[in-house]
Every structure is written in C-alpha cells, then in structure tokens.
Design brief:
The protein has 792 residues and is an alpha+beta fold. It has 28 helices and 24 strands. Strands 16, 17, 18, 19, 20, 21, 22, 23 and 24 form a nine-stranded mixed β-sheet that branches. A hairpin with a 4-residue loop joins strand 10 (266-274) and strand 11 (279-282). The longest helix is centred in the middle third of the chain and has 30 residues, at 464-493. The relative contact order is 0.05. Residues 239-245 have low confidence and may be disordered.
Length: 792
C-alpha cells in the first residue's frame, strides 16, 4: 500500500499530520516553566527539516521512515513510564493503520499470534462513510449529532481465550477542512439527512468522496473490558430467541464463559428442576448437555445429589464447587452421587450454581473442567454478575414452554376441564421432548382415564320440535298474508292472469300450512317467496307509486339475514337461548361447589336444553384418595341440582318470550368404564366396545317409551332416573326419600319398565314429581299447582 487512502471510499482525504500537536508545543516553548519549555523546544527541533510532518503524510513507508521523529513528538502522549501498563495507539480514523503504540498493546498483539488481523468491531462498513459525514456536520457546520457508538477489539490471548478491549478516541489533534469540490450543506440538507440515515447515496451526494481533508491523527485509549463484555454477551445470547435456537449457540456460550472466567478448558451444562416430581430433567436443544444427568433423561434429585449438596442447591439456593473431583471421590468412597457422575465422565473440577428466583429453584448451571483446581469457590464468585440474566432467561423460557404447552393443548385438544388438565400438560411436555428427539415423527400420546364412573343428566325442552314448527307456520302464514294483500292491490290495476295464478298459489300454501305442514314445507315456501314474489314486488314498486307504502311495509318486516319474516321463530329461538344460558349458568355455579367436595371431570352442552357429563375416579384426581362415597355424594348432588334447575326455570318462566315446558332426566350407569379423548372430535368419549353401550343408552334413552304405552318416560313436572340394576334402584330410592323429607320431591313415586331400545334391554326408571316453591315463601307446589298459580 503506497497511500493510506487506497481502497477506502470516504468523504475524507486522510493525511497523517502533527501540525496541531506541534502548534501546541510552540505554545509550551514559551512557558515560564523552563523544564516544560526546554522539552517543547526539543520536540520542535526534532520536527525541523521534515515539512511532511506538518503538511501530512499519506504513504505508510514515510511514516516508518519518520518513526524516530514521530516517537519524540508523541513522547508525552505515550509515557515510557506507563507504556507497559497502558493500552494505547496512534492512528487515523476508520483505518487499521497504527503508527505508534504502547508496549502493552504490542504484547497483546504478539500473544494473539502471527495470523491475527486487528479489526475494529461494531463498525459496519456501510456505516463508516456516514459516520465520517456526521463528524463533518459536527466540526465544520456546528450541527450537534450524537452518533457515539462503543467500538472495540476482540483479541485472543496466549491461551486462546477471547478478550475484549473498548476503544476511546482522543481527537484533539485533528483538523477537518472542506475541499473545493465539497457542496455547501444547507439547513434543508441537514433536515433531509436526519431522516435518511440508511440512504447512502444521499450522503454521498452531499459529501462526495475525498471532498474534505482530514489532517492529524487520533489517539486510542484502550481498556480491557472482558468481564463486562462477557456479561453483556451472556445477556445478549439469552435474550434473543433466534440466537438460542441457533446451532452454534452453545459453543458460543462456552466461549463466553471461558472469557468470563479466563479459562480455556471449561464447558457449560444445564439441567431443569421439576418441582412437582422433585427431579432434574434434561434441557432439550442443540448442543445442550447436562453433566449432572450424564446420559439420563431425568433423575430424582435425591439420586443426583447427596444430602448436603441437595440442601445447598434446593434449600439454601447457593452454589458450591468441587475443585478436585478425584480427591473428593476418594474421600467420599464414591457415595456422593454428583461427584461420582463427574468422576465417570473424567471431569476434574466443577461448579454447580442454582438458577433460582423468589419462587424457588428452576434449574442448575453446571460448569466443568477436565483439569483439577481450575474451578473453585473463588472464581465461582464471578457468576454473581451473570446469574440474574440466566435466571431471567430461564423464567422466560419456562413461560414460553408453558405458553407452548397451552398452544399444543388448545390445538390438539381444545378447551380442557381443570380436573384433567394435568394429564394434557404431561402429554404436551412429552410431545415437546419427543419433537426434539424424533422430529416430525413425534406423536401426541392418547389421553385415557380408566376405571372411572360416569354421570349423565339433562334438562330438555319438551315439544321443542312442535314449538319450532308452530313458530315457523305462524311466520310463513303472516308473510303469505302480507303477500296476498299486496297481490290483491296489484290485481285492481293489473288484472293479468299471471297475478291471478300467483294469488292462487299463495292461498294454496296458506291452506297447506294449516293442514299439512311437512319438513320441506318451509324450504318450498321460502323458495317461492324469494324467486317468484320478490321480483314481482320490486317490479311493481317501480311501476305503481300507490303500492310503495305496502311494499315498503312488507320488506321492513323481512329479516336481512334470513330474507323471511322472523318474529315468532325469533321468540322461540330467544327463549331456547335464554333457557340454555340460565340453566347452564346455574349448573356452572353449582359445579364450583361440587369440585370443592371432590374433583371430577365436568362438561356440558347446549341443545334444546342443557346436557351434562361428569366422570369421577382416582385416574382423574391423580391422587390415591378416591372412595366410592364421593361417587354417591356426587349422585345425590346431581339429583338436587337438577331439581333446583327446574325450580329456577319455572320461577322465572314469565320472563321468557314464550311459555315452554322442560323435563329432567338422569342416567345411572353402575359400572366403571374408560374414557378417551378423541383428537378428531376434540372431546371425551367412552373407550372400548363394552363401554360403548353407555353412549348408546345416553343418546336414545330420552326418546324411550314406558313399556306397553306410547308415553315418553320424561314428563314435565317430574324428574326421571333411568337405570338397569336393582342396586341402583335401591340407592336412588334412598336419595328420593331423603329429598322428599327436604320438600324437594313429592310423595308419589313411580317404578317403570321401559320398552327395549335398539341393542339395549332391561332398562327401568324411577319417576317422581318435583316440588316447586317461590323464593319469597315456603309453600310447595306440584307442577299442576304451579301452572295454576302462574296463570292466576
């Protein structure tokens, strides 16, 4: 290189000049302090006869040629007394050319090796040009732009450990002047540049290459910030999600800790603490290892640690070191688990540090070396500064894992009842681990609960199909009547045969609605009104002004979404929706109390009424605390709540748009069964062929008839309990007698046999009247009494 400006695109034409510092010595030469003045004159004399030292040097060879003179000029800046301690260089900005340096800097570069090339970090090449422009704006135009960024070197030491050095520039001996080709920067240019930092072409337009002359040099004061930078790197590595997923993350993490501790032969590992099961678990990720677990996936804490180390990490939440594994292994006779596992892996020294917050231990940071005494309780103190960042990262990681588990559960299983949530969490956690191991071959395991008892109940709207059909008939009849009136008005002015035919069809539909309403009647009439009547009305609206009011009135009554009159059906739909809402709300409220008595699975569905399923058993609670007394208690609770729901409905029946009746039923299944979560349907269902009989009965039983009659088993004003075994009958008769004593049920009790259902025989039912009461008094009514009271 014959010129320092070669291969550099910059607004500066660089010249290494000592004019500014020499002018400073000219002032010192006049000092009253003779020692200072004499020294200044000696420096000035060394520069005499070498005008290039003032005019500026661009050829690096000339810098070497004038090395002696330059060293004299810079002697005060590079004190011989401090040269072995201070890290300092003299250079030109944005350039790796160093023409003077302290002995300490030279020794650092020598230790880095012959192949090492010094390079300023954190200075993107594309930004260098713009940074130079901002310096010109500051020094030449007085615009204060703060673009200070920390620049540093990364230099390996003799052991190969990366060390970090921060660079602070002293620009006291510089001068910048505009050349003839430099455009004048206006206020408008300045404002435009402020909003266009990344527009390099704009900056080059305003500050063309070599349009300003930089004369002088900068002194770099350099400081070893390895500890601070290592901590910063740890923080940065742990914060970035993308970094933690990168394949090189753990190797970079090892290097950061090596720099922090100043040790080449160390590695870092992690293990996660599962508080629920008191085990250490492997962290799944690229390159992440646990030296405490070795090859194990999980290990009980009591098996991984001795009692002292267990107490130290889990209770006291303090780190400890094993500075000589072989010595401690011999002393403990191999009975200290954590020492033994280190010994098996050829590890000679180690530090174990708890990753813990206020809530407790979350994991263990493991640092190991294959050399004895390298890791010890003294250098372990350096972890104090980095542990908060590791704790924060683990807290976030645990939160992210929980969110991911939640997402998997929601994706795979939809909303899950709290009583069985733990099972899905276990399965989701296993799924995550399998994903790390097997990739896309991982599958979400089956969710099955064995040996549990089912309970089913429903409060159903009686005659809901008839009520809906009646509402539909009324709406269609009203709409046809409006059409008929308009057609009559049309015929008064346009007595065309087609209108007479349309009127005939309208009246025929009205007659059929009253006498012969079928499933497809609604669809047929709806199509007629849409395809034939609507075009006629729109045509007549534009043709006959006197018909507009009646046609406007007709369309104002039409629902925008259905394109039909939706009055009676709206009352019906609103009533069903309100019944479902109120009954479901009451059931949900009562469920809170029931869960406190003993946890169990609960789900409900809204149809024309509300159905609910409950499952209770040891498999659901996860604890060995289940007793059949909890089943009996839940059955009695269910019976009482069903009666309360009936009371709630009839007490407030007057608030519903139309009067409908409800009927309640409970299905008893006396044997335990298994349920499985169906991934495709996102709900639980019975598991196995034999257990499927329960689902068959549940779906068909409310349509069952009393044997030898056409009477449905469910009736308004009564609660029906369907069962198949004599012991069920005896059990529920006890509940009935108890609730009779509490004035919940009436005295008359029916024992009924049911007609056989498809594939199901031998069903029986207990049917008993419900007693109703108003909240404001203590009177009790049968259904008939209540209806008379309501109508009175």
């Amino acid at each position: 290189m014959s010129d320092i400006n070669e291969n550099i695109e910059s607004p500066f034409e660089l010249k290494v000049s000592f004019e500014t510092i020499l002018k400073h010595y000219e002032s010192l030469a006049k000092s009253e302090d003779e020692f200072i003045a004499a020294k200044a004159r000696r420096v000035l004399k060394s520069a005499e006869g070498f005008p290039e030292l003032r005019d500026g040097i661009t050829n690096p060879a000339h810098l070497v040629k004038r090395e002696k003179e330059i060293r004299i000029i810079l002697q005060d800046s590079f004190s011989p007394i401090l040269t072995k301690n201070e890290i300092k260089t003299a250079s030109v900005p944005f350039h790796n050319l160093i023409f003077n340096s302290s002995e300490r800097f030279k020794s650092i570069i020598d230790a880095a090796g012959k192949d090492f090339e010094l390079e300023i970090k954190n200075m993107p090449k594309d930004d260098t040009y713009i940074i130079a422009c901002t310096i010109i704006l500051n020094l030449c135009y007085g615009y204060e732009i703060n673009f200070k960024r920390p620049f540093y070197y990364e230099i390996p030491d003799a052991k190969g450990i990366m060390r970090y050095y921060k660079i602070l520039y002293n620009a006291d001996f510089t001068d910048i002047k505009a050349n003839e080709n430099a455009p004048k920067i206006t206020e408008e240019d300045y404002k435009n540049l402020l909003d266009n930092f990344e527009n390099i072409e704009l900056w080059k337009e305003k500050f063309p290459p070599n349009s300003y002359t930089f004369k002088g040099f900068v002194i770099s004061n350099i400081f070893d910030i390895t500890d601070d930078q290592s901590i910063s790197n740890i923080k940065s590595s742990l914060i970035g999600d993308d970094k933690r997923k990168d394949e090189t993350f753990m190797e970079d993490f090892h290097e950061i800790f090596r720099s922090l501790l100043g040790l080449k032969d160390i590695n870092v590992g992690f293990s996660i603490y599962n508080e629920e099961e008191d085990v250490f678990e492997r962290v799944y990720g690229t390159g992440v290892h646990s030296f405490l677990l070795k090859d194990a996936e999980t290990k009980q804490c009591s098996d991984a640690l001795c009692s002292w180390s267990y107490n130290r990490l889990l209770k006291e939440k303090k780190y400890f070191s094993v500075s000589d594994v072989d010595r401690i292994y011999k002393i403990s006779e191999g009975k200290a688990p954590h020492v033994s596992v280190l010994h098996e892996q050829g590890i000679k020294s180690a530090i174990f540090a708890p990753i813990a917050n206020e809530e407790g231990l979350m994991g263990i940071l493991e640092i190991i070396s294959h050399k004895p005494q390298v890791l010890n309780s003294i250098n372990a103190n350096k972890l104090v500064d980095v542990m908060p960042f590791i704790v924060t990262a683990v807290e976030r990681s645990k939160s992210e894992e929980q969110n991911l588990i939640e997402a998997i559960i929601q994706q795979e299983c939809t909303s899950i009842h709290p009583s069985v949530y733990w099972k899905f969490v276990d399965a989701a956690r296993k799924f995550l681990k399998d994903k790390h191991k097997f990739g896309n071959e991982a599958t979400f395991e089956k969710i099955i609960f064995d040996n549990i008892y089912p309970l089913f109940g429903q409060i159903d709207v009686k005659g809901s199909s008839d009520a809906r059909n009646s509402a539909t008939q009324k709406d269609l009849s009203l709409q046809l009547s409006l059409v008929s009136k308009i057609i009559d008005d049309i015929l008064k002015t346009d007595s065309l045969p087609i209108y007479e035919q349309i009127q005939f069809q309208v009246k025929a539909y009205k007659k059929d609605l009253k006498a012969n309403f079928k499933v497809d009647s609604e669809q047929t009439i709806t199509a007629f009104l849409k395809e034939e009547i609507e075009p006629i009305l729109k045509f007549q609206y534009n043709k006959n002004v006197h018909l507009r009011d009646s046609i406007d009135d007709y369309f104002s009554k039409i629902d925008d979404d259905l394109n039909l009159i939706y009055f009676y059906r709206k009352n019906y739909d609103d009533t069903i929706a309100l019944i479902n809402k109120n009954m479901a709300t009451l059931l949900d409220q009562k469920q809170v109390e029931a869960q406190k008595m003993y946890p169990h699975y609960f789900e409900r569905y809204k149809t024309d009424g509300v159905e609910h399923n409950m499952y209770i058993g040891e498999a659901i609670t996860k604890e060995k605390s289940f007793n059949e007394v909890y089943l009996y208690n839940l059955r009695l609770w269910q019976l009482q709540v069903m009666c309360e729901m009936e009371n709630e409905y009839y007490q407030n029946q007057h608030e519903y748009p139309i009067a409908l009746d409800v009927a309640s039923m409970i299905l008893v299944f006396n044997q335990s069964l298994s349920i499985r979560f169906r991934m495709d349907e996102k709900q639980f269902d019975v598991d196995g062929t034999y257990n499927a009989r329960y689902e068959v009965v549940k779906k068909r039983v409310d349509k069952a008839l009393i044997k030898g009659t056409n009477e449905r088993i469910t009736q308004k004003g009564k609660i029906t309990i369907v069962y198949s075994q004599k012991e069920d009958e005896n059990e529920y008769l006890q509940y009935v007698r108890f609730l009779q004593s509490k004035k919940v049920l009436d005295k008359n009790v029916e024992i009924l046999e049911l007609e056989n259902l498809q594939g199901v025989t031998g069903l029986k039912a207990i049917r008993v009247n419900i007693l109703y009461h108003k909240k404001e008094d203590k009177s009790f009514y049968t259904y008939d009494d209540l209806m008379k009271e309501i109508k009175a």
